[in-house]
Write a structure and sequence with these properties.
Number of helices: 7
Strand order of the largest sheet: 1-7-6-3-2
Shape: globular
Mean pLDDT: 94
Distance between the termini: 36 Å
Low-confidence stretches: none
Radius of gyration: 17 Å
CATH class: Alpha Beta
Oligomer: single chain
Number of strands: 7
Order of helices and strands: HHEHEEEEEEHHHH
Strand content: 25-35%
Largest sheet: 5 strands, mixed
CATH architecture: Roll
Structural class: alpha+beta
Length: 190
């Protein structure tokens, strides 16, 4: 399987939440550097972390998909330049490394942003991931930026009603449940 096919299979597994597809290309010690902005379970190595990231994204975005623009492979690295597309139908919760999580209410809007995913291979499996993402473009397309009076009111309502706290809890729970579902029985007992 060439680098393009491998990258597309891997990103399709994330978009679909397909753990069997993901397991075919993922190293058990895979490390996702981007998990610093995601729920805690996403930082777990290997399949549990990847499935947690998938669940977190799919909680916020319907019709999530990655479309390859181009790929390049150089020895132990694969770079995939992609379009990430979807529609925000659920709260999008971000987890700043040194701050409190923030939940952005669903807008129903579609988005399409370019991303570049770079993966390092070990034993011919994805072992390390880092990405350059257009988060500003995505948040602008979704209507969260720049802050508008309607957007500020929507965020204030989220906080006052407690919806933000429930959204944060739901994102953490969805990610943890996805990680737990694929964790090996021996890992659970530790």
């Amino acid at each position: 399987m060439d680098g393009s096919q491998r990258a597309l299979e891997h990103l399709t597994a994330v978009a679909m939440g397909d753990s069997e597809l993901a397991a075919r290309s993922l190293h058990p010690a895979n490390h996702n550097h981007m998990a610093a902005d995601e729920p805690p379970a996403c930082a777990e190595p290997g399949l549990p972390g990847l499935m947690a990231t998938s669940a977190w994204l799919r909680l916020a975005f319907a019709d999530l998909r990655f479309e390859l623009i181009e790929t390049a492979a150089d020895g132990e690295r694969i770079m995939a330049h992609v379009w990430m597309r979807g529609r925000q139908t659920g709260p999008f919760v971000v987890f700043p490394p040194d701050g409190r999580p923030v939940a952005f209410p669903p807008t129903g809007r579609e988005f399409a942003v370019r991303q570049c995913h770079v993966s390092r291979l070990r034993d011919n499996l994805f072992a390390e991931h880092i990405a350059v993402r257009d988060d500003l473009g995505m948040m602008t397309q979704l209507g969260h930026l720049p802050p508008s009076p309607a957007g500020i009111l929507r965020m204030a309502k989220w906080q006052i009603t407690g919806a933000q706290g429930r959204a944060v809890a739901a994102a953490i729970a969805a990610a943890q449940q996805a990680a737990d579902t694929v964790r090996k029985p021996a890992d659970i007992t530790r």
